[in-house]
Amino acid sequence: VQLQASGGGTVQAGGSLRLSCAASGRAISTYVVGWFRQAPGKERELLATITWSSGSANYANSVKGRFTISRDNAKNTVYLQMNSLKPEDTAVYYCAANQIFWGRGTQVTVSS
Fold first, then answer.
1. Structure confidence by residue, pLDDT tens digits, 26-73
2. d(CA 30, CA 42)
3. Nearest-angstrom CA–CA distance, 94 and 22
4. How many CA atoms within 13 Å lie on the side-chain side of 48?
5. Continuous segment of H or E residues that includes residue 91
6. How many CB atoms lie within 10 A of CB 28?
7. Separation between Cα atoms, residue 18 and residue 69, nearest integer Å
């Protein structure tokens, strides 16, 4: 499985961004896809997961109510809609399938 994350950028606090994770290769439908982030000097943090086959999603408390994970079967893509962004959301964001296959990160910067 190959994953390609995109959609990062710079946004003001309170703004929104949508990240995309495009999957190719072996059937993604058997995997659990997660979004993670890592800020400088901090450990990698799991934000949200989605079970591709069922669409069932789970969220970390830090993003629950602000972030939404979803998937588009036709496009083999998982999204992370991020609303009400805060400066502490600044990090490199990654997607991963079963925490085995990882995409390159995309930088999200939230200015105050």
1. 777 889 999 999 999 999 999 999 999 999 999 999 999 999 999 998
2. 31
3. 12
4. 24
5. strand 91-97
6. 22
7. 10
